Amino acid sequence: MKYNLPRLPLIIFLVTIFGSLILGFSIIYDLVVTHSIGEKLRFENEFIKIDFPRNWCAYSWSERNITGSVYGVFLYSQKPSSIIIFRIHDENVTRHFMKRNNLKNVSAVINFELRRIYSDIRKRNENSSLIFEETGGISIREVQANYSKIIIKNAFESEGTFHDMFCLMISYIRNHSLVEITLWGVRENYEELRILFEETLNSTKIKV
Amino acid sequence: MNDLPTKKDIINSLIGGALCFLSAIFLSSFVDILLGQILQYFGISGVIIFRSFYIAKAIIFFALVHLICGFIGGVYTGYTVKSRIKIAYFITGQLGFIGFLVFTTFLSKVDFMSYYFEVIVLPLLGNLLGAYLGGYTIHWKSKEE
Question: Which residues in chain A touch residue B129, judged by CB atoms under 8 angstroms apart?
Answer without folding.
Answer: 16
